[in-house]
Amino acid sequence: MSISVKILDTIPLTHNVRHYRVEKPKGYGFSPGQATEVSIDRDGWQDEKRPFTFTSLPDDDTLEFTIKSYFDHPGVTNQLWSLGAGDKLILRDVWGTIQYRGPGTFIAGGAGVTPFIAILRQLNATGKIAGNRLIVSNQTEKDIILRDEFEAMKGLDIIWTVTGDAKSKLLQERIDADFLKRHVGDFSGKFYLCGPDAMVKDIRELLDEAGADVGNVTWEK
Fold this sequence. Notes:
The structure is a single chain. This protein is globular. The strands form 2 sheets. Strands 4-3-6-1-2-5 form a 6-stranded antiparallel beta sheet. Strands 9-8-7-10-11 form a 5-stranded parallel beta sheet, with helices on both faces. The chain starts with a strand and ends with a strand. Strand 8 (133-138), helix 3 and strand 9 (157-162) form a beta-alpha-beta unit. It has 2 domains: 2-95, Translation factors (Elongation Factor Tu (Ef-tu), domain 3); 104-218, 3-Layer(aba) Sandwich (Rossmann fold), CATH 3.40.50.80. Helices cover 19% and strands 31% of the residues. The protein has helices at 76-80, 114-125, 147-151, 177-183, 197-210; strands at 2-12, 17-23, 35-40, 50-53, 62-68, 88-95, 104-109, 133-138, 157-162, 190-194, 217-218. By secondary structure, it is an alpha/beta fold. InterPro entries: FAD-bd_8, FAD-bd_FR_type, FNR_nucleotide-bd, MRET, OxRdtase_FAD/NAD-bd, Riboflavin_synthase-like_b-brl. GO terms for molecular function: oxidoreductase activity. This is Flavodoxin reductase. Residues 1-101 form the FAD-binding FR-type domain.
């Protein structure tokens, strides 16, 4: 299935991340954490598909994507930055294995936080955010997506860490075995991972070595 939808507006979040709010087709549903393949409805771009997670809630009247643009090469995300209200995107079937299975620790690298946005928004809206922890690693503070919104979620335990921002007052640590031991400690709970493939692979191995149950670790397979 593919359907063309109109962009209603774009909202800047960081120097390279925007919300894209688009029309919601009748009967089009998803669960928080799921995604679809998106392409730009312009000549030469319709077949250039990229996976993006829904960051709106399922009951919202519109759909929202939160997308990081990479300006160092002329790809889809670079082209998306030039779009605005009235331009069109092509959506396809919904897919994705990152769905909420109970309180746990969400670990993300950079834009890997996007599958967690709708999950945490829904938990916050329904009063179920307590007992969850969000750990996000970025290069710099200016790269953090939705920092103010996450920090306003009362009951959500948050750890920001940066790896390339010497002036930051945030943690400046990589997520390694020692980091997990000090900041997580209890590995009996659930874990949700998203980020660069190499990072997710490394953290899965670290969690396994620390004694986490592989059945309690969720990532995009």
